[in-house]
Amino acid sequence: MVHPREGRLISTDPAPLSAGDADESHGLSDFGYKESLDRSIGKFASFAAGVSYISILTGTFQLFWFGFGTAGPAYLWSWPMVFVGQLCVALCFMELAAKYPVAGSVYNWAKRLGSQIVGWSAGWLMFTASVVTLSAVVLALQLNLPRLWSGFQFYGSADNTTDAAVNAVILGAIMIAFTTTINAWSVKLMALINSVGVFVELIAAVLIAIILACNITRGPQVFLSTNGYGAGESGGYLGAFLVASLASGYVMYGFDTASSLGEETVEPRRTAPKAILRAILASFVIGGAILVFAIMAAPNLDDPQLGESSGSLQYIVESVMWGPMGDIFLVAIVVAVTVCSLAVHTAAIRLMFAMARDNALPFGEKLARVHPIRQTPVIPSLVIGIVAVLILVININQPNIFTVLTSIAIIMIYLAYLLVTGPMLVKRFRGEWPPKDLAPGGYFTMGRWGIVINIAAVVWGVGMSLNLAWPREAVYGTPWYNTWGAFVYIGIIFGAGFIWYLVKGRRHIGVLASHSSASVADRIGGGL
User: Fold this and answer.
1) CB under 8 Å to 180, separation ≥6 — which residues?
2) pTM of the model
3) Please, which of 29, 181, 227, 362 could form a disulfide with 25 given CB 3.0 to 4.6 Å?
C-alpha cells in the first residue's frame, strides 16, 4: 500500500511479534500504531464503560412499554434469549480483546480478521450507528427530568406533543454539550464520572429490584400464558413475541466499549475481556430482576399506561414507592442516562479516531490529531457532538422518521458485530484462529468451545438482524420507505460512505505517518 503522505509502501500485515514485544506494546505495534492516548483506565472503569453503554436503567425504562404492550408479560422470555445470543458474541469479543486491545475495536478486529473493505464497512456501520444512538439516548431525559421538576420543561407544556419534542431536543443538546466537553477534556475525568455514575446506577437498580420484589401481587405463572396477546394476528403469539423481542435486543449491546478503550486501559489484555463478561452478566441479572419483579408487582396488568411510551415502567415503580423515594428513583435514572450518553459518545470518538488514523475517513489527519497535553481526540469529540445535535432536530417535526433511524442504528450495530464474528468463523474453519504468535499465554481463550460458540454467534447475529430489519408497520410505521426503513436508510447511510470509499478512500487507506509505530517503520525500511 502506498503511504498517503510520503508515497512509500506500508505493510498492512506486519510480521508477528514475540510475546515480550506484544506485551510491552499492548498489541498496538501489531497494527502498526504507536501509543498516543492516555493509558489510565483501571479495572472498574473498564467494566463501567461496558455497563454504562448497555445502561440497565436507561434501556429497560425506555423500552419496557414496547415489549409489554406488544406481547404482554411473556415477552420477558426474550430477555434470556437475547442474553444467550449476545453472550456468544461477547465471548468472541473477549478472545479478540485479549489478542488485540486497540481503539475502535470492532473496526480493527474486522480489518484484521477479514480485509480492508470488511474492516471499513464494520467501522462505518458502527460509527454512524453510535452517533445516532447518542441522539436517541439523550431523548430519555424528557421522560424523567420534567417529572422530577417542572422547571426542566424549558419550552411550552409537557402535555403538548410538539412542545415536549422541542424540549427533548433542548435537554438533549445540553447533555451532548456536557459529554463533548468531558470527552475533549480528559479520559481520566470521563472515567471518573462514568465510574461514579455506574456505581450509583447499579446500587439504584438493585434497590429498585428489591423494592419491587417486596411488593409483588402475583406469581410467576403470569409469564407462562400469552394472556390473549397475538390473537387474531398473522403469526399468532410467535409473531407478537418476535416483535416484542426488539425491546430486549435494543438494550443488550455495547459491551464492546470496554475493549474499544483498550489503548487507554491498564493491562488491557487481562482487563478488557473480564470487563466485557462482567458488563453483560450484570446487565442481564439486574435488568432481568427489575423487569420480572415489575410485572409481578404491577397494580393492574390491564392498565393502558403499561403500553404507553410516556413512562410505563416508571409508573409501576412509582406506584410502589413511598415518600421521597419516587424522586430519588428519577434522579437515579437521570444519572444512568448521563453516563450512558457519556459512554456512547466516548465509544463513537474511539471509532472515529481509529478509522481516521488509518486515513479511512475524510480529513483523516485532522480527525486523528491527539491533544499533546490532554491526550484526547478533541476534534472527533466536537464533530460527533455537533452531528448528534443536528440529528436531534429531526425529532421536532418528524418523530416517526427519528424512531426509524434509531431502530436501524441498532441493526447497523448488529451487522457490524456480524462483520467481526463472521470472518472470525471463516478463520476458524481455515485453521487460522486462534493465532499462536500474537499474544503471550495466560489470556482468555474459548479453547475447544470456540468454534461452537462462534457458529452460535453468527447464527444469532443473522437471525436477530433479520428480525430487527423485517418490514413491520407496527414497528416502523408508514409510508413504505419507513416500513422498509432498515433497507432504505441503511442503504443510504452505507451507500454514501461507500461511494467515498470507492472514489477515494480505498486508494489512500493506510496508517498515517504521525501514528505509525517505530517497529513498523523499521520493518519497512529493512524491506525496501
Assistant:
1) 345, 381, 382, 384, 385
2) 0.91
3) 29
